[in-house]
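Troubleshooting: if your tokenizer reports a length mismatch, compare your output against this known-good record of 152 residues.
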Amino acid sequence: MATLRTKNNLKQKDVARLLNVKENTYSKWEKCSNDIPLEKVNILANYYDVNLDYLLGITNKIEHSEKLKIDYKKICERLLELRKENHLTQNKLSDKIGFFQTTYSSFETGVRRPTTYKLLYIVNFYNASLDYVVGRTNTKKIYNNTSKLLKK
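Known-good structure output:
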């Protein structure tokens, strides 16, 4: 996020204003010391005209598109789809990614919305596109690298 901000000659306070948050809140998000809400990540992707996968370091390839929204119903559907395609129960998947089964189940059923970092762990486990999982694209992509945010 910092790279895109500096490439666009913006200061942290400019991006904080865009996101309607305090500068120190944005600074923590940029340093990965706090979890940035998915809605705010989406605003940034739309503002910079990049895909979520690029913004969060899942891929180095920028894809431009119209201003897109997060589809929370799609998240539920696609999490279920990915899990079933990989022949996993919720218990087995939860063990592999380190979540409580009830937490993961609440994401698939829509009872709870997953945080950005929880979604990153899930898509990294599947090597899948975050843009696909959140409904910003219908093109399923598989990546071989993991998000830089999770490596810190």
